[in-house]
What we know:
This protein has 242 residues and is mainly alpha-helical. Helix content is 46%, strand content 8%. The protein folds into 2 domains: 24-111, no CATH class; 140-242, no CATH class.
Amino acid sequence: MNTAPLAPWNFGEPAEPSGRxxxxxxxxxxxxxxxxxxxxxxSEGLRPAAVNGGAARLEAVDNLLRQVPDLARIVSRAVRSIxxxxxxxxxxxxHSQPIWRARIFVSFPERQDEIGELRLAESVVHxxxxxxxxxxxxxxxxxxxxxxxxxxxxxxxxxxxxxVLHGLFVFYCISTFLRRVTExxxxxxxxxxxxxxxxxxxxxxxxxxxxxxxxxxLTAHGVAQMRLWNRTMPLHQGTPEI
Length: 242
């Protein structure tokens, strides 16, 4: 019997039955940025980084994902290559593009404690969920009026509806992930405070979205999915509790 809780990344479908989770470690997917992609990344203001030590650090992400098996399976299927990016201390950078359906680019936090592990895991989940939604969009139309724009709290400017919807989905997934990894896992006080802060930040950002305008630009399927995401994790009502 499947008792996995509802989660936005399942798009309303039953999660796969829980059981032994087998997937290739993320560290095996770590590769330098291909030379033919460097000009594109640099045009986006992104810089490649060395892979040194990255595989070992991705083991911690594997361990976190094992706490959320249904998400771990999706990440494993969606991501085939992980490429390291450079970032300033205290900042995390990640990137993906729909044309690269199985590639994600992430920076590795300067701190290598539990908070650093959570930050790296969030970057991996963030970009994997962009790819996951892109794959779902190839099956079902989510957006009816693609030329509409809305304010994006993550970009701080007007963005196409599809981009805002992607952001909404990704941060519902991140919020659900952060909550789920703490259900059966003790975390240090500073990591607990970090998670609480991230959940509060995500909620405040989602509150800035014009829900009515976003729904009006979506298909019936897109509206149903957006409402489902909120039912699985009602971020726009009340205060986050963990």
